[in-house]
Amino acid sequence: MPNLSLRTKLALLALLPLLASLALIALAVRQQESALAAREHALVRGSYMDARRTELKHYVDLAVSTIKPLVGQPGGQEQALRLLSSLDYGPDGYFFVYALDGTVLMHSRQAELIGRNLWELRDSRGRPTIQQLIHQAKAGGGYVEYLWRKPSSSQLAPKLGYVVAVPEWGWMLGTGLYLDGIEATMAELERGARQNITTTLLWVGAVAVFGVGLISAGALAINLSEHRSAEAKLRALARQVVQSQEDERARLARELHDGVSQALVATKLLIESAQHDPTSAARLQELALKRLNSTLAEVRHLSHALRPALLDTLGLPAALQHLASEFDAAGGTRFGLIVAGDEVDLPDTVKTALFRIAQEALNNAARHAHAATVGLTLRFERDGGLALEVADDGQGFDADAAQAVADRGLGLRSMRERADALGARLSLVTAAGAGSRLAVKLSAADLARAAA
Q1: Domain 308-451 belongs to what architecture?
Q2: What is the pLDDT of residues 74-113, one digit of tens each?
Q3: What are the angstrom distances between the C-alpha of 388 and each of 320, 414, 428?
Q4: FRET partner for 44 with CA separation of 20 to 30 A, picked from 1, 124, 237, 442?
Q5: Residues 6+ apart with CB under 8 A from 234
Q6: What would be the CATH architecture of the domain defined by 1-178?
């Protein structure tokens, strides 16, 4: 995200965790609801199957009790088969009777099967259907799931059968229920579960949209507020810059008019007097020379005020030493400089920025701190870095309150901007009545970038 603004990056940092959290919540909800639907599916199917097993057992028990009195009577088997063929419970609920060798003895819905031996009958999966039923009957009776053609639709459908043996006649007696109804019920439950999951995800999406909208509105409000504040500070800074330029021009104009200009006029008059009075020419020329030397000193002072020559010729420590000496000579507050470490040559941009920061800091200390001493420290670090510190024992101030007002704290903002331009870290520790300590630190990498 190198081309994005800071506000955009902050907005993304706020939105991305929210969206990721909502996505994880949606995933968790989906998994939980899917697991719940699967458990519900299994519970419903288990309950249905238990009820159907009990129902089938009751049907078979009823059929066995119906034919039991006929066992041992002449013609009892034929009469029993007639009774069983008449028993049914719905269009697809019927009884069937097979001999233990697989021959169909009675089938009330598929009469064409009667008399056929289905021992070798297998379903689409290769399982021996009749052999499974007879084996379960011989084992004492029980349940068997298999595929069978449904009489009402002539379609293969899963079926749950319950069979018992009638050993007196060598029969397998049973009945069954087709399970395609429960499958339709399960499919309906699954559709309902999917609908619930979809509804929940839509709610999560709505919450996400609402959250994003809320954050965007908040970010927009903060952005507008910061934009207005930044504009006010920028206008105040622009006014201060213009005013500073005008003040500096007025000061230079006064210095030139009251100092340099008047000195040059006096020198001109002395030279003209020497030309008209040869007898006093030597004395007048000497006075003119003194005036010129004084004027030259004044010009050098003005030049130094605009940009100290020491900064370009002898380096930053010498320029800071001269600056501290000037403030110290003004009296009232004691100013001093300490240079620590092995001095190295610095890029022009670094020297200029640090000199102006120190100049602004000393100006603030002289005007507002009411301090007894102000210490200026320039430290060349062993790792190639550089640190500039300005500390005073004055009354201190509330830095946040000063910068919150557009037309205050301009000097501090100017120092921060100069430090930011170098990639340096500027810190200020101050409080009302506790003095101030301002520090600017540059790493070796910062100095290398400034020199590039």
Answers
A1: 2-Layer Sandwich (3.30)
A2: 888 999 998 888 888 777 788 999 999 999 999 988 888 9
A3: 11, 16, 12
A4: 124
A5: none
A6: 2-Layer Sandwich (3.30)
